[in-house]
Amino acid sequence: MGKVLPYCGVNPVIHETVFMTDGAFVVGDVHIGAYSSVWFNAVVRGDVCPIRIGEKCSVQDNATLHVTHDTGPLTIGNCVTIGHGAVLHACTVKDHVLIGMGAVLLDDCIVESWSIVAAGSLVKQGFTVPEGMLVAGVPARVMRPITEAERRNIEESPENYVRYSNNYRDAEQ
Fold first, then answer.
1. 160: helix, coil or strand?
2. Are 152 and 28 in contact (CB under 8 A)?
3. What are the residues facing 46 on neighbouring strands?
4. SUPFAM superfamilies, alphabetically (predicted)?
């Protein structure tokens, strides 16, 4: 189980079905919904503003989720996959989104539902990723609508991570 720490007397609220690995940190005003997971060395730091993570989300290895007191909270919907090494800062990610490995999402950006932020992309402050689109690049630009195969991947990824979490739990017993 990862490390769960209060900040200024505020404790994280983590649903009992959430899976956290060793090395993961969840700090302060953070709520994590059912069947979500926080993986190796990920940091979810809700110290100066709240972080809300929905159900069936995976915060993968070395991802960093943080906020700023000036721009406000970080909100993540349901069924969101956050790839390895991604950085999300004081932004909004709607339901059914895939954030690629090493992507960076800056303050006040919005990623609408059924979208993909490609690996290594930089989503600028205040930019909105339209629903159903793939964005890529530095800075990220709208490339095209997602394909049916990509839509299936967005649907399957949360279920895969629930299964992986259960496999790790089973191995611990």
1. helix
2. no
3. 28
4. Trimeric LpxA-like enzymes (SSF51161)
**Do you find a cis peptide bond into 139, omega within 30 degrees of 0?**
yes
Contact 24, 5 (CB under 8 A): no
Q: pLDDT of 110-161, one tens digit each? A: 999 999 999 999 999 999 999 999 999 999 999 999 999 999 999 999 999 9
Q: Is the dihedral of CA 68, 72, 73, 76 positive or negative?
A: negative
Q: Where are the domains of the chain?
A: 3-172
Farthest CA pair distance, the chain: 46
Write down the residue that tokens 């700023």 correspond to: 68
DSSP code for 106: -
Residue 25 neighbours by CB under 8 Å, 6+ apart: 2, 3, 5, 42, 43, 44, 45
The token duo for 146 is 């997602």
Residue 49 in tokens: 């503003």
The highest-level CATH class for domain 3-172 is mainly beta
> Cα–Cα distance between 143 and 33 in angstroms, integer?
31
The torsion of the CA quartet 72, 10, 39, 53, rounded to 10 degrees, works out to -50
